[in-house]
Write a structure and sequence with these properties.
Layout lengths: L22 E4 L29 H26 L22 E7 L8 E7 L13 E5 L20 E4 L24 H17 L6 E6 L1 H14 L12 E5 L27 E3 L2 E3 L2 E2 L2 E2 H7 L4 H14 L10 H14 L3 H12 L4 H11 L4 H4 L4 H11 L31 E4 L12
Parallel strand pairs: 4-5, 4-6, 6-7, 7-12
Antiparallel strand pairs: 1-12, 2-3, 3-5, 8-9, 10-11
Length: 444
Amino acid sequence: MGSMHLPLRILLITPALLGPALIHANDEVKASHDLVELHPGEERRNPPPDSSCPDWEKDFAQRKVGMEHYRSAIEEALRTANRGTLPTCNEAQRRKINSNNATAREGQIEVSNIAGLSEFKYDVIAPRNPPEPGEPIKTLVVFAGGPGNVFSRELGKFQSDDYQVLVADYAGMGKNALKTLTPGKDDQNLNLDDFANLMEKVIRKEIDSGQMKDYVLQGHSFGSVGATVVGSHLSNLPDTDKRYRPKGILIGGVAGFLNSPRPPHSSRGPAQLPLEWVPRIINNHVCILPQGHQCFDDKILEEILKPKKKKRISARLAKLYKSFSQEDPSPLQSFVRDALHWEASTNPRRAAEFLEKYFHPFDPGGLYCWYKTNFNDIVFLHREENASMMASVAALNCHLNEGRDPRCGCFKKNKPYTSLNYQIGPGTKLHYVNGDADGQTPLG
């Protein structure tokens, strides 16, 4: 049976609000994205300017069918591997990633320049410990990763003890989904520059109403892109509007700008390469999670201390991927790759525990229960949950990989995400949340 694995381009990095000590602030932005890199020898090509926009509704319907086929293929593969049966699983242990147990205030601004969207909504999560009367309200403005994470559904996880948190779904997603989606019309204002204009209106409204004073922008993974584009816009407001400028920008899970050499004054170490989607041969064996010339599998296996265990698990994986074909991986090969990546998005130790549990020895029944418990939570497989979100994700990604996706020709207003286009004003400092190495984010 051929693979039902869907063509994907986006890597998940689990968002984190704040990390350890902030270091290395530079005025020039060096943040980037979590998309797969070009393969060696592949050229970055701009799409033809006359590219037409896709029928988003039709494309989404096809993707939905493809995901249903992939699920069916996974279940059949695990049934076969488990001698024709599937166990009864306790799904009560499902990973809880969403929580809305927080006091939040919903705000909105009127929108006139985005077809299909008449109002732009956002949420402000109150701190657990409100400030004393007369004290300024400290605010963190958080930008979603993905792109495709919908923070309005996860408000509880952003609540802080001492500062309020403002979150807004990108245009086309969540609370800001488009009400109409005519190709070539309603999809033309889903870019980050229009989003920055919307966020400026939100910031002005909150500050002018006394609900907000000093604030900082924060982004993790793709959120670092949103934070720096919006930060570039806001930090360069004229002096007459300097009270609307952010005090700083916090970014984590980042790499280098597209096509931009590292500035000579930078002391930041080499950026970690993002993981590639398709397993390939590295050092004479199949690497499930390639990372440039390195194999992220090795970092995962380093978390397993006993040499015999490592050897047995490596042998099991080698057996599973023995007949691996990049053009046509089996459903089980694709599923293990997606599952391992999902666990690794938290940290290598969690991925190592996954391998210990299900590949020492090989346990297809246990893998099936993992699938029943966790598959729906794998954001990078399910983030495009409707046609509006599909268009929004495509538009945001096209700031980064305009030469890889033919749909990018649809978005006439998108600018490439480069340091030339998005400079941070001198009054706003850029901080790397987890330091130069950003070790908390293994995939960043």
